[in-house]
Amino acid sequence: MNQSYKMLIACLLCALTLVSGCATTSEPSNRYYFSLAAPEHYDVMVEHLEFEKPGDRHWRWPAGYVSCCWKGPNGPMGSGGTMDPLPKYIGIQWFSFAEQKYYQRLIALPEDIADKMAKQAEYTTSKGTFKGPRDRLVIGLAPRGTIVLWIQNQIGNQIEVARMRANEIDGDPSDYRAATKRYLEENADYLKQHGVPTTGW
Description:
By secondary structure, the protein is an alpha+beta fold. It is built from three helices and 13 strands. This is DUF2931 family protein.
């Protein structure tokens, strides 16, 4: 177990200790979903992704490589899974290929996120327009450790619910030497022309 992973676990346990005596609020019984997204050309490797609802459940998700999609017709959206139950904390650690840096953050979800996700929002399918809860949480990871959280039930009706900055942590970029080579083969020209934006996310 590497040092940065130990730090992530320690931060999560510390937060759980602080809230262990707090009362919990009720939440809707529907199932929740999550997705991971990154801006095009700024791929990341999510090394650790953990969810925690104090006193109920703690679980991990093998996220891996994330290369899309921050915005446009395919975003915000990406690979993901279910959240059962809705967590209070999310611990995440990733490597940025464009920056060759590691980032880590313990995310405390907004207190009112269950209420916001339960509100009905219109979505459209081939069968018509309907209403349903914004039951998907999208975790966006951008350069400089930027994290943006959206909720939605369909691409295009997302609303931003949180924005924060992760901590840069120590790590050896050579651990991803082969993956970085493949990444640069596909994105070097774009990076040379546009660089790595530090704002606008």
